[in-house]
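Today's session is about reading a structure prediction critically. Students often jump straight to the picture, but the first step is always the sequence itself: look for stretches that repeat, for charged clusters, for runs of hydrophobic residues. Only then move on to the predicted structure, which in these notes is written as discrete structure tokens rather than atom positions. Here is the chain we will use throughout the hour.
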Amino acid sequence: MLNSQAEGAGSRPPLVTRPLLLRFVSIIGASTSFYLLLSVVPLYAEVGGGGHGDAAGLATGTLMLATVGGELATPRLVARFGYRLTLVAGLFLLGAPAFALAASGSAVWIAAVCVLRGLGFAFTVVAGGALTASLIPAERRGEGLALVGIVTGIPSLVALPLGVWLVDHVGYGPVFAAGAVAALAAIASVPGLPDREAGSPDREAGSPGRDAGLRGRDPDSPDREAGRPDREADPERPIGVTAGFRTPALARPALVFAATALAAGILVTFLPLAVPSASAGVVATALFAQTAAATAARWVAGRHGDRHGPAALLLPGLAVAAGGVLLTALTHSPVAVVLGTALFGVGFGITQNATLTLMYARVPASGYGTASALWNFAFDAGMGVGAVGFGILAGRTGYPWAFALTAVLMLTALAPARRDRRTEGGRA
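Below is the predicted structure for this chain, in token form.
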């Protein structure tokens, strides 16, 4: 029995390959650049804006909304220029403009830099995400995406609280420069990556039908939503972003993830402002706890999803995330803030892995770019809208009530989560 189990384990395709290791380099560079400045730029904007929270919200909102716009355009750029050139452009735009942040603290200047960096981040996450998915064997997708989540999470785990800490010790200029260098240095790894989706495991194995078969049986499949009968479905034909938005099988998990991303944008932007200034160490600890919990939860969710299916994780992930935000509303309690952000991190990590795994599983390899664009759209639109909206709301209600209302708003996504679970169960 042990021998048969060993043979079964040995027959599994390798997960970590040379191209995936090279891809990890660009992931680490982009993540470090992004997260190092994610909470720092809003603080910088607040100083330049005279201490008003709406300036901080505008900085994050501009960054994320520019990212959203770039994400919708990236699949076309990849189709025309390939993965490598798009990824190089993204890393350059994410890194180089960060040098210019120190030149001025005005809201207009910061917003302009955030637009460029947002576009760069969009290119890296959509083109890079589709490329990463093509490097992971389909039968190990959940585990592979969990591993990618760890590689992404480690820089965020370190860089997000480190950026806030460094500003107090070395000032804004060196932190901006470090964020720029992290992205620019990663460009050196890109030439060794595949340039087209022809290198995906599904195509190399000659079996695009695994995903295509799932899609063909799915009453919510992209082909049905795009007005093409299942019998005419072409698994090699890319799925457009517009068709993806009209596909419930993709839109439902994206909407659930957007609800958790809403709170993520709020926490990284406003936690340093909501917690009393005497508790600066609490903020760094809380941000570390959030990213650590999210990274661990993504790994556990990925392994569980490969064995039992990821759809069942949507409801508990969303509920746990909302509970964490509600606990964080006790902003004057350091224990509540740290525990609340950690609890949110658990729910956020679960929904990150479950939604992305579901969306990749519901498209063929040629649709990875669209699935990546939709998922990242949900991520960044949620973060951007959350940051801007929370800044306006908190100005009227105060931070504790604004956090509590955010938790309630997140729970409205329970409806699409339940619908997706029933639909997935009906197909099983």
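Discussion point for the tutorial: The radius of gyration is 21 Å.
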